[in-house]
C-alpha cells in the first residue's frame, strides 16, 4: 500500500524541516511549501490526502486557500494551524470545512493524532461510499418478488414508510422471509438513499461491545482506546440503521437505545457531550416480542417506541404461486452465476415446491435452487432433482389425490346406477393404519372387502395423525381446502370414528 500523502504549508522553515522528518518517520509521504500560492499549486498537482495549513502566510490567509482546496478535492482533510489563538477564525475555518484546528505552539504528538484521525475519517468515508454502491447494486438486483395479496399490502406500506418522516420501523417475520430486503427497500426508496445504510446484528456482540459499536468511544475512554471511534449511530447520520435480531439486545443497551430514540442524541463511551444525529432506525426480529415482554426480557416502552410503524412479513408457505415466481427468479440469477440454462419447472416438481412448507422460507428456496443449478444439468427442474423432504410430500399428495378421485368416480357411478348398497373394492390388506381407527376395522380379516370411502377416510386420518393434528397442513398434503377437510372429518366423526378436534 502506498504511503498517505501529506502537504504542509507554513511560513517557518524550521517547522517545515522538523515536520517533514517526523512525518516521514511515521511512514507518510510529505511535501512542504512556505507560501499560499505555492501551496495551492502543489496541492492541485499532487492531490494529497491531508493538508496542514497555516492560517497566516506571507501572501495569503489560510481561510482564503481552504475553500479553493475543497473545491478541487472535496475529500481532502485540512488541519488549520495558527499562532494567534483566534477563536473566531477557528469557528470560521470549521464552518468552511476544515477537519481540525490547532494552535501554536502545539505538541508533535497532538499534530500526529490530528493527522491520523483525518486519515481514518477519510478511510471511513471511502468505505461508506463502497458500501453505498454495493447496497445500491444489491437493491437493484434483489427486488422483492411476489404477487400475493399480503405481499402487495406490505409493499404498499414500505412505500408509505419510505416517503414519511418516521424515524423508527419494526419488521417482524420468520427467519428467511426477507426482512433485510424490506429494510433496503425502505432506505433506497426514501430521501435518505444518498446517505449510509448501516447494519448491526445484535446477537453478534456482548453487551460491553454493543454499546461501543452503536455509539463509539472517545480517545482514552478505556484501556486500548488510543483514538476516537465513531459508532454506527453516528456513521448513519442522515441515513438509516438496521438493528437485526433486536430481540437479543441486553436490557442495559435497550435503555440507552430508548433514550437515543427519544431525542436523536447520544454520547460516545467516555464522552461528556451530547451529539445530535438524524437517523431512521429499523429494527428487525424473528422473535416473538410480546412473549419477551411477558418474560421481562424486552422493555415495553422500547417495544411501543419501535412499533410506531410495524410490518409483518408472511412466511413463504402462505404465499402460494409466489414460490414459483421466486424459483424462476433464482434460476435466472444462478444461471448467470454458474453458466447454466435452467428455464422450466416440470409439473411434478412444481407441485412439490408448492406443497412443501418451507420452514427456512425464501432463504431455503434460494439455497436449494443454487445447489440444484450448480450440480445438475439440463434445462428443466425435475422431481428427481429435489431432496427427499419435498418428494415425500408429493408422493403422499399423489396417493391422496388418487384415492379421493377414485372415491368420487365410484360414488358418481353408484348414483347413476341407483344401487342400494355401498360401492366396494377388494382389499387384501389395508396399506395404511391409524391409531384412531375403530376396533371393528382393526379386527377385519385380510380378505374382507372394504369400501373406497373407508379407505379414503382411513388415509385422511393417517395423514392427520402424521402431522400431529395440524388440519391446515393436512389439508395442503391431501389437496383439499381446509373447509373441505373439516367437512370430511365431520362425516368421519358422525360415522363413529374418533377425531381429535383440539388441534388446528
Automatic annotation (TrEMBL):
Region (Disordered): 417-448
Protein name: Sigma-54 dependent transcriptional regulator
Biased composition regions of type Polar residues, renumbered to the chain: 434-448
Entry keyword DNA-binding: yes
UniProt keywords, alphabetically: Activator, ATP-binding, DNA-binding, Nucleotide-binding, Phosphoprotein, Transcription, Transcription regulation
GO biological process: phosphorelay signal transduction system; regulation of DNA-templated transcription
SUPFAM superfamilies per UniProt: CheY-like, Homeodomain-like, P-loop containing nucleoside triphosphate hydrolases
Chain ranges passing through the membrane: none
Domain Sigma-54 factor interaction stretches: 144-374
Modified residues (4-aspartylphosphate): 54
InterPro entries, A to Z: AAA+_ATPase (IPR003593), AAA_lid_NorR (IPR058031), CheY-like_superfamily (IPR011006), Homeodomain-like_sf (IPR009057), HTH_Fis (IPR002197), P-loop_NTPase (IPR027417), Sig_transdc_resp-reg_receiver (IPR001789), Sigma_54_int (IPR002078)
A Pfam family annotated for this UniProt entry: HTH_8
Organism taxonomic ancestry: Bacteria, Candidatus Eiseniibacteriota
Natural source organism: Eiseniibacteriota bacterium
Entry GO MF terms: ATP binding; sequence-specific DNA binding
UniProt key word DNA-binding: yes
Residue ranges occupied by any Response regulatory domain in the UniProt entry: 5-119
PANTHER family the record matches: ALGINATE BIOSYNTHESIS TRANSCRIPTIONAL REGULATORY PROTEIN ALGB, TRANSCRIPTIONAL REGULATORY PROTEIN
